[in-house]
Amino acid sequence: MTDLTNPVRDAQAPLCEEGVYPYPDGCVKLVIGNAGELDVHSSFQYALPMVVVTSLDDLANERFQDHHQDARPQTVDDLNDVRWQVQQLRELEAKRTSGWFLRWLFTPCMVVHRGTMGSMHRRFLLARNAVHARRLVIRSPYSGYALTLKELEALLARMERVKTGEEPAEYAWDYSEGGDFDQSLDRWFDEGPPEHRAWVLRKLEELKQFEAEAANNASDEPPRSA
Fold first, then answer.
1. Do 142 and 161 lie in a common domain?
2. 185 vs 171: CA distance, rounded Å
3. Domain of residue 215, residue span
4. Does 149 map to a domain?
5. Vertex 70, ends 107 and 5: CA angle to 5°?
6. Is 146 part of any domain?
């Protein structure tokens, strides 16, 4: 889980080229933010999820903020993280020994919240709903969110479909050196037909000559008087 209020680039981030399925598990990100009222105990505050395909957590954060400018991003998790979270809630559900009425009244929930010193905490518990779970765990003025097992299972199912290309999702290229964009260009160049590679090499040579001529022309110009 990455705290999106203090994003960090991961040097070991996987390369995930757009449209090349299935995506690596680490490329399918779930960004969750708080939306609605600021009061964490309010019924009008809710968790706002968004699935983004990218190799870097902070790129997922940027896409989330582009689409939801009024929301407050909290965390980003990849596909393996969400699978584990769902498994924890399912195990909590399986261990229940209460009768049908309490099973109907309470549901497994996951609460993620900020504690002292700004650290993020995760807790799995039984509550009536997500709002009830937030009220049980999070104390003002700390922030956080809660999801029920049903909600998290639905998000996991969507992420699995995005991984295989069955469902579209927002994509964010990594344009840094050696990132997804460079990887895509290299693959296109290596796997393309010979005439494509010859065309690219010719254009690169033309560009190099143009830049050299432009630099020479600039150096030959007389200095302008003030």
1. yes
2. 17
3. 183-220
4. yes
5. 75
6. yes
Q: Determine the Cα–Cα distance for residues 83 and 69; give it in Å rounded to an integer.
A: 28
Q: How does pLDDT run along the chain (226 residues), one tens digit per residue?
A: 554 433 333 445 567 888 889 999 999 999 999 999 988 889 999 999 999 999 999 999 999 999 999 999 999 999 999 999 999 999 999 988 777 777 788 999 999 998 777 788 999 999 999 999 999 999 888 889 999 999 999 999 999 999 999 999 999 998 887 788 777 777 777 777 888 778 777 877 888 888 888 888 776 666 665 5
The string over 19-34, giving b where at least 16 C-beta atoms fall within 10 Å of a residue's C-beta and e elsewhere, is: eeeebbbbbbbbbbbb
* pTM of the model as a whole: 0.79
Same domain, 46 and 156: yes
The verdict on residue 42 lying in a domain is yes
Whether residue 112 lies inside any domain: the answer is: yes
Tell me: do 215 and 104 sit in the same domain. no
Q: 147: exposed, middle or buried (C-beta count within 10 Å: 0-12, 13-18, 19+)?
A: buried
Based on the domain organization, do 148 and 200 belong to the same domain? no
Task: Give how many domains the chain has, as a whole number.
Answer: 2
CB-CB contact of 108 with 148 (8 Å): yes
